[in-house]
Automatic annotation (TrEMBL):
Keyword Transmembrane: yes
Cited Pfam families: MFS_1_like
InterPro entries documented for this protein: MFS_assoc_dom (IPR024989), MFS_trans_sf (IPR036259)
Entry keywords, A to Z: Membrane, Transmembrane, Transmembrane helix
Domain Major facilitator superfamily associated: start-end pairs: 8-397
Annotated transmembrane regions: 6-27, 48-71, 77-101, 240-263, 269-290, 302-320, 332-352, 373-392, 404-423
Record flagged with keyword Membrane: yes
Organism whose genome encodes this protein: Rhizopus stolonifer (Rhizopus nigricans)
Subcellular location(s) of the protein: Membrane
Identification of the protein by name: Major facilitator superfamily associated domain-containing protein
Membrane topology type: Multi-pass membrane protein
Amino acid sequence: MMLTGSILLLTVDNTVCLVLFTLFYGLSQPLETLIHTVIIKVLGDYRVLFYGSYLRWGIWVAIVMTGMIGLLMKDDYLSTLLVILSIASMIPIVLISLVWMSTEPVNPIQLDISQEQAPLLLKNALHLTADQNNIIYKPYSIFGEQLSHISEEDASQLDRMFTEESLRPVASYQSVDAVSFQSESVYRYEENTIVPCHALALLPLPTPLDPLVGIYIKDSPEQELIYPAMPKANIWKTSTLSLTLLLLGMGHGLINPFLFVYVHEILEISFNMISCLIMAHFLSHMLMSFVIEKWFFHRFKLTLITTSVHITLILCSILYPCFKSNHLTTWAGLLVLQALQVCAFQLIWSSAADQAHLMHWNQMDRMKQRATISALYTSIGPALGVLIAGCILQSEKRSEDYILMYKICVALFSLSFVISWGWTSDE
């Protein structure tokens, strides 16, 4: 996608390029969310354990396709090749989405999970997705009400539970008055029957393309009755978190889309080398996601993570204009900076999404907050950044324009770093 967009900017008429971008992004983004929804629906209760591995298959395909395009590129039919590949790639996505929309969750056997491992894996998966702040939660509810009257040692009852039906937790209630019980039952039912597209926002490692429909979830007045003792979310922390992601999104819109145009026009890097840069981008993204998923980052302080990320992004913005054309160090430096930049953006997004999870006490508020920062980070922020870049890159002095653009990136990342203190501080 990045390779196609960057090269079309260089080879296709502006009007045609605008029409192609509108069609491509207008169709691909909803379809991408739909594909992710199908994946988590197929995986069912095990999605939190296997979701990341399925996404890595897509990244591997992107790496291979980018390498093939880089090898097959010829200037005489470059734009035609890219348009054909873009259209051809959309057709199977549409077909897959239509075929698998009515799919059902698979059973453990279809996921190559043995019957001995299934209960333990399911328990770990539900532990990561269930609301840990539920004060009336019972351990037996992890297996549904089937274990509410027996001991955990009853193996015969456990063996009967290996069915294809979902084993999501069923809330168990203490003795409460009828009105409170009824309100809680309705709210719990709505909360546990969340449509799969909303469940994207509840994964421990969410994608930046969380469904924006989470923003429009109506506030339920029953929440205050159900959780009277739970504290409200800190408005200062949520506001500074949203503003930080907005500024980072603007910086991403400035530094990333026009980077490949900059290295081709100013640094005179060939399209084949640009494809290698994009492959490094995808590979770094995949490796960073794998590290976060398996090892995560809770061993470090949040302030250390945000400080390291912002320093990395500021250094990238400063060093990009310092490269000279036709130098070996330029090519090596671009690869290193591209990898560091991708890792920094992936790490700050994962940290922010995890922090949004800790700021709120119920799943609906978590979805709304993650959907909000997703919109700011992946849509609104980059759109503003691209508009700023478009206003800057108007004169004939392209080299000076790019230097000014990267100076603005330094200012945005510095301001984002200062604002991030609002949601990373312990107070």
